[in-house]
Automatic annotation (TrEMBL):
Organism listed in the record: Drosophila melanogaster (Fruit fly)
Residue ranges occupied by any Helicase C-terminal domain in the UniProt entry: 86-254
SUPFAM superfamilies, A to Z: P-loop containing nucleoside triphosphate hydrolases
MF terms in GO: ATP binding; helicase activity
Highest taxon listed in the record's lineage: Eukaryota
Taxonomic placement: Eukaryota, Metazoa, Ecdysozoa, Arthropoda, Hexapoda
Pfam families to which the protein is assigned, alphabetical: HA2_C, Helicase_C, OB_NTP_bind, WHD_HA2
InterPro entries from the UniProt entry: DEAD-box_helicase_OB_fold, HA2_WH, Helicase-assoc_dom, Helicase_C-like, P-loop_NTPase
Keyword terms of this UniProt record: ATP-binding, Nucleotide-binding
Protein's name in the database: LD01659p
Length: 613
């Protein structure tokens, strides 16, 4: 059982159930807090000298601690690289040879400390290894090696190194007491990585890494008082993550109960506003109806090992006949990102360059994923290693991605009982990038940003007036954004950065026509003389000639009706009779805003049409 679990709360939740505690073998770990470390190392920060005056060398640990904080009573999370260097210098002089793991919040903290260590410590006595989820597996496996002649194997790690691994020669733990926790803000529908103090349970677990194979030492870069004020346990994920999947599964498990009432019975009750936000999104996606009942689409999505929105993208791709391509995109989002960070300084942008190359002129991170998958699966086995190294890709993660796509394909075929003929039909538009974008729009909406050309190309999203494209996206760059053919950018996730700007992750450029054809739930037309406004939900207005708008509305009603019939019956035999996919394919293929179809046949005069689409 996890060392970070609140056993008492869990036992009480089940009516005082008996807890059987099976202790694993461990050795004693000596714990030193910040005040002890200051005393042992003799470290003297400039502010300490200012606070103490002329140090005598006889200061008590409590006096040193007060001087270190400069008399401040409020201590903000911070990392003192100089103190870590001083402590490692002490271990090199007086300690036994072995491994030391330094727990840090994120990659930038790791590279900052890496540079400091390389310039301060004798290179012949140390080796430095980075342990991070986006560092290649071959690099991570170096933590298990021994290095003859090296006194300290220094491992810089995020909390990925906190559980599940035992490093045979690990003698020392240096714990900054900090981590980046992913939280969710329902008011702007964005996740955020927040620098925060870890819990007491996490601190104990980190210390325990040093006592796996022999007596160890843990150096905590925070004082005893800070330890006492830390939360006992980490905030559960149900309290700080999106609840879309949980709400859907809740309704399937307890169809007669209100979702919020059922979740109120949980060990940790999630915030009510987060529950309401997820329920509203599920209704918008057509996964729940207005009575909070699970729809036929919801039942299908629940059977898929995917998030709700990616799941809807996949189901809609069957209707639009681009299934195989969407399986690849969906599988990518179900596994670890195969792109890895380059730990060599000066080459940190390598993976970003690689992402852009795979994207080409497609203006879509999702289309780049398809290109990556196709190139990898067409390689000869002897060429895989070179391909991965050249493109900053983790081979193991890439193989997991390919395997996930295969498993997902089997799952979809089982749910819909595909025949050979229906499988061919469901992917007959597989290479049509417009149809892929349209399927993404249907599932990811309302994760959509609009570029305001009249306001310096500023991006805005629903409920969030200040957003930007992520650095990892192929659409990144002011010059590139200025020249984009459309004002609409679809995204998979929105992440709030430290400067309170939301960053759009995994983006795809889509047209206003695609938004009108597949976005939103409430499609309302408003006639204004010879023009018409197409209103999607409460925040999107698209202007077009009245006749075009009426015909577009008919196409939208047609595709909505056919898609609903497909998910309600799961009969793929109906697809050969559907005219919607071919209708929208021809409309999108024309790439002329004024071209529109009525019953798949009539065309409007292009000279009379507005260019808002």
């Amino acid at each position: 059982m996890s060392a970070t679990m609140d056993l008492e709360a869990l036992s009480n939740y089940f009516g005082g159930g008996t807890v059987m505690d099976v202790e694993g073998r461990s050795f004693e770990v000596s714990i030193y807090h910040l005040e002890d470390i200051l005393s042992k190392t003799g470290y003297m920060h400039p502010r300490m000298e200012k606070f103490l005056g002329k140090p005598t060398g006889k200061e008590t640990p409590s006096e040193l601690l007060a001087a270190y904080y400069g008399g401040n009573t409020i201590v903000h999370p911070d990392i003192d690289n100089d103190l870590i260097v001083s402590l490692l210098e002490l271990l090199l002089r007086q300690g036994d040879a072995g491994a030391v793991i330094v727990y840090l919040p994120g990659y930038s903290d790791m590279t900052s400390l890496l540079a400091r260590l390389e310039s301060s410590l004798p290179r012949e006595q140390i080796t430095i290894i980075l342990l991070h989820s986006q560092v290649d597996n071959s690099e991570q496996r170096k933590v298990f090696r021994t290095y003859p002649g090296v006194r300290l194997k220094i491992i810089l790690s995020t909390n990925i190194g906190q559980t599940s691994i035992t490093i045979p020669d690990l003698l020392y733990v240096i714990d900054t007491g900090l981590a980046k926790m992913k939280t969710y803000d329902s008011t702007i529908d964005a996740s955020q990585l927040t620098l925060t103090w870890i819990s007491q349970a996490d601190a104990k677990q980190r210390a325990g890494r040093a006592g796996r194979v022999c007596h160890g030492n843990c150096y905590r870069l925070y004082d005893n008082d800070r330890m006492a004020r830390m939360n006992l346990y980490t905030i559960p994920e149900i309290m700080r993550r999106t609840l879309d999947e949980i709400c859907l599964l809740t309704k399937l498990a307890a169809p007669d109960k209100k979702i919020e009432n059922f979740l109120a019975l949980a060990l940790d009750t999630p915030p009510k506003d987060a529950v309401m936000q997820s329920c509203s999104r599920l209704k918008l996606l057509g996964v729940l109806d207005e009575r909070d009942e699970v729809t036929p689409l919801g039942h299908i999505v629940a059977e898929l090992p995917l998030g709700v929105q990616i799941g809807k993208c996949l189901v809609y791709s069957i209707y639009l006949r681009c299934l195989d391509s969407m399986i690849i995109i969906a599988a990518y989002h179900s596994v670890r990102d195969p792109f890895v960070l380059n730990i060599e300084r000066g080459k940190k942008s390598g993976q970003q360059i690689s992402r852009v190359l795979f994207a080409g002129d497609g203006m879509s991170d999702s289309l780049a994923v398809i290109k990556l998958y196709e190139e990898f699966t067409n390689l000869k086995r002897k060429d895989i290693g070179d391909f991965c190294e050249r493109n900053f890709i983790c081979r193991n993660a890439m193989e997991m991605f390919v395997s996930a796509a295969s498993t997902l394909r089997d799952t979809v075929y089982r749910i819909f009982r595909f025949s050979e003929a229906s499988a061919r039909l469901a992917s007959s538009f597989n290479n049509d990038t417009n149809m892929i974008r349209l399927a993404l729009t249907a599932g990811l909406y309302p994760k959509l940003a609009y570029m305001d050309r009249e306001n310096k190309n500023q991006l805005v999203a629903e409920g969030d007036p200040l957003v930007q494209v992520s650095r990892s996206s192929c659409l990144r760059g002011k010059k590139k954004q200025k020249d984009l053919a459309s004002e609409w950018i679809l995204f998979v996730e929105k992440t709030r950065t430290a400067d309170q700007i939301s960053s759009l992750e995994h983006t795809t450029l889509v047209s206003g026509l695609m938004v009108a054809l597949a976005g939103g739930k409430r499609f309302i037309t408003e006639a204004h003389g010879s023009e018409m406004l197409l209103c999607l939900d409460s925040w999107i207005r698209l202007k077009c000639p009245a006749e075009f708008g009426l015909q577009l509305h008919k196409v939208r009603m047609l595709t909505d009706r056919e898609f609903a019939k497909l998910v309600a019956t799961r009969k793929l035999s109906l697809m050969s009779d559907f005219i919607g996919p071919e209708t929208v394919r021809r409309l999108l293929e024309a790439d002329v805003p004024s071209t529109c179809l009525a019953e798949g046949k009539s065309l409007l005069d292009r000279d009379n049409c507005d260019n808002d689409f």
